[in-house]
Amino acid sequence: MESATTLSFDHPYGYSVAYEREELQFPVYVVAVVAAGLATAGYKLDNFPLIALSLVAFGYAYHNFPLLETGKPRIGASQYGIFADGLGIISWRSIKQIDIVWAEIRGSGSHELLITLQEPLERALLADWRKRPMHRFLMRLPWTMAGQDVVRMPLDVFDHAAEDIHRTFVRMMNFYRR
Hints:
alpha+beta, 5-stranded antiparallel sheet, 4 helices
């Protein structure tokens, strides 16, 4: 039996989505280069504020490093439930509903998937992947908790359309919950 982490787009038993390959990588690379330039200038000029600013820029690039790993599945679904990188596998029976909403954040809008759970997250998870290695602890995750029983996933950073992801998850939930 194949684990959920190795599912691919063409796998007959599952569906997975990776980060988009086009637009997301550029800002991370630019910030990393700017951070290196600031660090070099700060070191050469013996200027502590420039070094501090470079550390902030390196922190941003480090946090967003997973956006550069475009081939790795970040969210998906299989016969067992919905999986998300850094979260685990949420059982189909533990999901009350799956909604897609339009969220306005700082003047910019994006689609978000809201997965409402019927029970606490600890009981809903078939596999718990929330314990991560120390070097990945501060890196971006493709999910957040919105309240006690709602998992929120921003969808516009993925390589499939938001409506397609939502439709596929709902279709799979309806099929596997029978």
